[in-house]
Predict the structure.
Amino acid sequence: MNELMPIEDARTQVLAAIAAPLPAEDVDLSDALGRVLAVDVVAATDLPPWDNSAMDGYAIRSADVAAAREDDPVPLRVAGEVAAGRASEISVTPGLALRIATGAPMPPGADAVVAVELTTPVAADGSAAPRGRDATGPLPAWIRVHEAAARSRNVRTQASDLQLGRRVLEAGRAIGPAEIAIIAAGSVARVSVHARPKVAILSTGDELRRAGSELGPAGIPDANGPALVALCTAAGADARHVGIAPDRLEPTLQLLRSALVDADLVIVSGGVSVGPYDVVRGAFARVGTVDLWRAAIQPGKPFAFGTAPRGGDQPGPPVLLFGLPGNPVSVFVTFEVFVRPALRRLAGRSPDALLRPVDMAVLEEPVTKSAGRRAFLRVAALRDAATGAPMRDAAGRVRVVLAGGQESHQLSALASADAFAVVPESVAGLPAGSGVGLWWLDRP
Ligand code: AMP
Ligand code: MG
């Protein structure tokens, strides 16, 4: 079996192991960000709930001011005022106006609002103040209106945005800040969303030490544990790091079993190769089934995938097991290509929303890679010095350079990268000026 497995075949097998998204649960809106609606959201109110003013000005009857002109204003008596949050008890009858604030309910009888700028306030003794600029201060006794207003002018009509009982958002919609705003505006406080995938993360390697601890003569900091927690969290999952396992089957198995107790997906990094200390496949095989794939990806082969029953005899679909290569850049690439789509599927994203949108880029320098594998090069976009915006060529392609050394242990290039440039299996390199696909990465 020396053939490399095409990336799409590997991903298809991963996704085929997910029979359905995770079940729905009702949550407060404060816990809904990043989740996917399992049920339509229906408005619990009209929005606006009542006609209201779009301006600071005067609520009037449009018929009263039909003849108003700049030089020939119409006088109206000011009978009171309506503030936001208060309904007016006074009606606007012919010849009357009520001062009104933006967002205040339209008083009965009024059918339009004239902006304060189009009025001149007049005191009880008949003295006119300067043409209105703002609607503050003592109420004038009268106003002069300098322009006609059509019916409904400056009125936001009831239900013009949302309608009571009508759908606000559809099931399947991912919830971002704008969705939170419209759901709350529909006066809905709880929503039915798919559960967040629970992920347990395990680092393996005798050489690994927790970041910040003494490394000794042969230790390296565990970068993958914290990185995977961050990758999963950024992908909308609920992630925990269960620990660092040494390169021995029994302790690895013990941590794996504890990971299975409360997880939909387990990610183990390191120890998936075929060396004498690579015990992860053996551990996966003890708790479930596992395949070792040599996927046509650079970096990132080899890669183990399997499933296991939930720990503690809990019912539910099997837990997905991912064994990623230990090199931290390989972890990022295989996470992006295989794990993130699986997390999005579990979280309820539709099949067409599992992968990142692909942009177009042009290489500013030649690159080399292994033939037969699709390379995900860590690249940085050239940026406009003034705006910071990525620069594009005449064809609209983002101009990219390598972000640094491209070996799979080199985290500095990853940290300077904006994106992965995707170079196809068919070539062993590309000259400067070549077009490539671009996957933008999450940046803070
Ligand atoms: P492995 O896949 O276990 O053969 O590891 C490949 C390389 O990745 C080795 O150089 C490991 O030291 C390194 N490595 C494995 N796990 C981690 C980790 N959690 N953090 C940083 N480097 C790691
Ligand atoms: Mg190892």
